[in-house]
Amino acid sequence: MSGCVGNFDGLVPETILAVAEEAMHCRFSGVVLPLPSYINRVYELERSDGERLIFKFYRPGRWSRGALLEEHLFVLDCRAAEIPVVAPLRFPGGGTLQETADGIFFAAYPKRWGRALEITEDDQWRQLGSLLGRLHVVGEKRAGRFRVRLDPLESTAAELNHLLDSGLIGSAPYREFEDAASDVMELLIDRYEPAEEIRLHGDCHGGNILSRPDEGLMLIDFDDMLLGPAAQDLWLLLPGYAGDCRRELALLLEGYRRFREFPQRECRRIELLRAMRMIYFLDWCGRQSEDYNFHDRFPDWGDDRFWRRESAALRTQAAVIRTDSF
User: Fold this and answer.
1) Which CATH architecture does the domain made up of 122-323 adopt?
2) Best label site of 40, 49, 216, 233, fewest CB within 10 Å?
């Protein structure tokens, strides 16, 4: 994964329509609706027959062609296993990935509706767990080559080193942050046991799961697909620390184990994965901080108070890890 920030200035409506018509071998109306997305550029287009399609233009430099095709293959594998996902369409010329003249990869998807996931009953936790169990049965059937491997000594160490060397942390809070992050890293190295490595959704929170009337739950947006332990796709769904959410976690695992084994000891990995996610997100933000609208979305990011808050959050997470009773 690269830290390059893509330039989407050339993606004006006229260009988007021309690219879509050439790729799909059909005419589109003048409807070009931008959809919410920070990393990529996503647009809803209408074909001349009235069908709506979603075109995703991937941020240049973030993923290689191989990494994007690996994501598409995973989603297509899920669809073949009758897991509810939104799979990329195959273009008339072949394949699911194309490239604009200036080097921006893009894909097309059918439009799907649904409402945001809201869990109000125990059975919904079980249903969600079953969906993830089925997802991971598919995920373990092929090896991954191009995506990030979720491992403290590989991904997390690289992210932290990049962050500390980036010059983004002010001189006043630098040592405080370095000490807090180093403490977390020591815990990760000491407690993170070797893990199975399967294809994962990678960003499996409630915002990436749709509830569709009469159809159930649907997984969307595999853009952050990872290679790593199954627990990564479960913990983001919990409403708090694992130790405070034992009931929700038990229900989730009850559903999951209908389709795939999940050893209880793997629950110990959850708070370690949360710490890794905290460092990942800080580094991710640092890599995007020069983007033209970054500070509109994160107005207080990067000042001394921000880094002191993040240092305190890492110290709190270290304390949670030390007292984890799983």
Assistant:
1) Orthogonal Bundle (1.10)
2) 49
